[in-house]
Structures are given as structure tokens and as C-alpha cells.
Amino acid sequence: MRECSIDDCTTTAAPRRTVCHKHRTRLNRYGDPDFTQWTVADDLDVQLLIEQQRVPSGATRLERRLIALGLSDRGMSAARVAEVVAVDPRTVHRWRAKTRQTAA
Ligand SMILES: [Zn+2]
After folding, report:
1. How far away, in angstroms, is 9 Cα from ligand 1 center?
2. pTM of this prediction exceeds 0.85
3. Which long-range contacts does 99-102 make (Cβ < 8 Å, 24+ apart)?
4. What H or E segment, with its residue span, contains residue 28?
5. Dist. CA 56–CA 97, nearest whole Å
6. Which of 53-84 are b and which e, b meaning 16 or more Cβ less than 10 Å from the residue's Cβ?
7. CA of 95 to the centre of ligand 1 (A)
């Protein structure tokens, strides 16, 4: 495992990549590794991460939420989802409730 090639970033690079998940997403989307936006999410990556039931340390808040909801859809308990996504179980419950509201 090697580190992300972006200056000052100590996150491990994604498999077969030279930059970490967060920086790759920023570069793909904006051509700028330092761009920050709460709403950045890569659809393909999110689906893959749901399959793999894992969340990279550089994942944005939105990506964590999408992965959490994807895992919930597969019948995973809120406690387990919280563990995978590394958030408080109450956060998972809140995300789920908000999604139900939006869908209704
Ligand atoms: Zn990085």
C-alpha cells in the first residue's frame, strides 16, 4: 500500500491508483485535488463500495450516507451499517428517516 501522491495527504492510495479515493474523486470531477464540496459522490464507486461493504477513509459525508442507505436497502441492521460507515447508529436512523420522507 502506498500513500496518496497529493502533497500533505497521508491517506493510503486506492488500489491500483496513485491518489486516494477523495482526491481521485476531486480530480475527476473538478480537475482540482483541493476542491471540497459536501455533495461530492461518485455513483460507480458508491455501488462498488456497497457491494464490498466498506467505506474508504477519504469518503465524503454524502458518500457515507449513500453507502449507508444502500446497505440498509440490503437489509443490514442500523447498528451494523453504522459500524461499516463509521458513524453513530443514530445518524444512520436519521438518514433512513430523511430518505423515507423524501420518497413519500
Ligand atoms: Zn489524497
Report:
1. 5
2. no
3. 99/69
4. helix 21-30
5. 24
6. bebbebbbeebbbbbbbbbbeeebebeebbeb
7. 27
pLDDT grade for 34, boundaries at 50, 70 and 90: low
**11's grid cell:** 491517506
- Cα of 100 from ligand 1 centre, angstroms: 34
d(CA 25, CA 104): 31
Separation of CA 69 from chain center: 11
pLDDT digit string (tens) for 50-65?
999 988 877 878 889 9
Please name every residue paired with 12 in a beta bridge, in sequence order, or none if there are none: 3
For ligand 1, the distance from its centroid to the CA atom of residue 92, given in whole angstroms, is: 26
Q: What does the chain come to in residues? A: 104
* 8 CA → ligand 1 middle, Å: 8
Element (H, E) at 65: helix 61-73
C-alpha cell belonging to residue 2: 502506498
Question: Which three cell numbers mark 76?
Answer: 443490514
- pLDDT bin (cut points 50, 70, 90) of residue 93 is very high
